[in-house]
């Protein structure tokens, strides 16, 4: 059995038996009466179901899907970070943040959970609205999530710094650059623990942010978020490295930390961090401890080839979905006890049904031209003449096609 199937079976069995992992009781201001907690659990289940489906589609071969890097695989708690932010805060996301995007869709009237779009990208359909079927990436204009242009790790961090700089000052001087962005918007940027070491992150993002915060000019409303699962592909991050490296940085990069397996703790601390950035217009660093399930990606990557099996199993025993079921039960937000299993199973069944449709969507990318089509803009018609001086109000400054 592959690790995804093991995690699935564990979930079904342990929830049915009430054998849930221990942890702190629910803490903080998540609103159970208003359904916020239940909504986060649904987002976590959908993210998990999409992960499982991507693997099933890859196994199906040519008529299935290709891309299986876990959108979540232990990072489902990021749904609680989305809930702690405003949906108008631009979010430059780590590739494991499907749960964030799903939870954010819940906050925006008229938006539906992005399952269809994500499944189209698994199927490499040119109808995938984010990458035209080239890659599984997260993104949505309506949800203020700029898609990445490359899968080079940490390459989105300097862009986030630039966006925060623009919101903090430059765009305000050049209206209407950010006309539809609230003045108190903050920029959010998430990444993995291994990515944090990349020179692009260290120089192009953290040092720049600290340098800016140190002199307080210009304002830099930027929240970094490191999703620390302790590993990058097969290379372990030294224990405690992220805290040792970021908790006491000089120059004003305020550090927050929380347990990413606990949606209450994550929501509470993410809210504190976001409030800090929003009110002071200074950068902060949110360190979220999490686990990685299923290894780095599907197919060839077997975590048991580079990690002791006992360690892999210990991670799996800390499945964030199991932690959520415990917290929801203790909070009284999920009754009767079967409710969690029902949500989980219904979500899986729905994703399978939607995927059956997504794989039939023509056309699938076949040729290099297909791949390039949504990237290369159509060739403009040749210029015929130049009218000079331009007539007042003439489009294109007098250039006529
Ligand atoms: C510049 C660059 N180097 C290497 C890679 C290959 N690569 C993809 S993901 C990854 C590990 C990232 O680990 P981490 O940041 O901890 O994120 P995680 O997958 O654990 O969530 C690497 C090395 C890449 N995409 N870009
Ligand atoms: Mg990692």
Question: What order do the SSEs take from the amino end to the carboxyl end, as H and E?
Answer: HHHEHHHEHEEEHEHEHHHHEE
Small molecules bound: thiamine diphosphate, magnesium ion
Strand content: 5-15%
**How many helices in DSSP terms?**
13
Quick overview:
43% of the residues lie in helices and 9% in strands. It has 401 residues and is of the alpha/beta class.
Question: Key features?
Answer:
binds thiamine diphosphate; 5-stranded parallel beta sheet; alpha/beta; binds magnesium ion; 9% strand; 401 residues; globular
Structure description:
The protein has 401 residues and is of the alpha/beta class. The protein contains 13 helices and 9 strands. The protein has helices at 3-17, 36-59, 78-84, 98-107, 115-122, 156-173, 199-215, 241-246, 263-280, 309-317, 320-331, 338-358, 368-373, and strands spanning 91-92, 187-192, 222-228, 231-232, 235-236, 254-259, 284-289, 385-386, 399-400. The N and C termini lie far apart (62 Å). The mean pLDDT is 89. Bound molecules: thiamine diphosphate (TPP) and magnesium ion. Thiamine diphosphate (TPP) is lined by residues 96, 151-153, 191-195, 227, 229, 231-233, 292, 296. The site of magnesium ion has 6 residues, from strand 4.
């Amino acid at each position: 059995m592959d690790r995804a199937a093991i995690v699935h079976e564990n979930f079904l069995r342990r929830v049915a038996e009430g054998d849930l992992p221990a942890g702190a009781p629910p803490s903080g201001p998540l609103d159970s009466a208003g359904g916020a907690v239940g909504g986060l659990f649904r987002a976590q289940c959908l993210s998990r179901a999409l992960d499982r489906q991507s693997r099933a589609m890859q196994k199906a071969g040519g008529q299935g899907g290709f891309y299986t890097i876990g959108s979540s695989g232990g990072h489902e708690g990021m749904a609680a970070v989305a809930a702690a932010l405003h949906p108008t805060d631009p979010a430059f996301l780590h590739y494991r943040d499907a749960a964030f995007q799903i939870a954010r869709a819940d906050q925006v009237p008229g938006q539906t959970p992005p399952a269809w779009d994500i499944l189209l990208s698994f199927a490499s359909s040119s109808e995938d609205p984010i990458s035209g079927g080239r890659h599984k990436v997260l993104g949505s204009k309506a949800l203020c999530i700029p898609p990445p242009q490359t899968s080079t790790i940490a390459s989105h961090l300097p862009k986030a710094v630039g966006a925060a700089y623009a919101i903090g000052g430059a765009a305000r001087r050049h209206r209407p650059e950010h006309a539809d962005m609230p003045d108190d918007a903050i920029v959010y940027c998430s990444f993995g623990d291994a990515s944090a070491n990349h020179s692009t992150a260290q120089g192009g993002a953290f040092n720049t942010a600290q340098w800016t915060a140190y002199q307080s000019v210009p304002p830099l409303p930027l929240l970094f978020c490191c999703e620390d699962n302790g590993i990058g592909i097969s290379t372990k991050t030294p224990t405690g490295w992220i805290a040792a490296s970021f908790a006491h940085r000089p120059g004003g990069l305020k550090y927050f930390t929380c347990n990413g397996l606990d949606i209450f703790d994550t929501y509470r601390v993410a809210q504190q961090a976001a409030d800090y950035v929003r009110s002071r217009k200074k950068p902060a660093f949110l360190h979220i401890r999490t686990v990685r399930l299923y290894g780095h990606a599907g197919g060839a990557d077997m975590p048991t080839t580079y990690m002791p099996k006992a360690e892999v199993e210990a991670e799996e025993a800390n499945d964030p979905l199991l932690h959520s079921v415990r917290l929801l039960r203790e909070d009284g937000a999920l009754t009767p006890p079967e409710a969690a299993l029902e949500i989980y199973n219904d979500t899986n069944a729905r994703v399978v049904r939607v995927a059956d449709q997504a794989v039939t969507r023509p056309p699938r990318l076949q040729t290099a031209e297909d791949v390039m089509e949504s990237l290369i803009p159509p060739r403009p018609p040749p210029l015929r003449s130049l009218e000079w001086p331009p007539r007042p109000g003439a489009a294109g400054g007098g250039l006529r096609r």
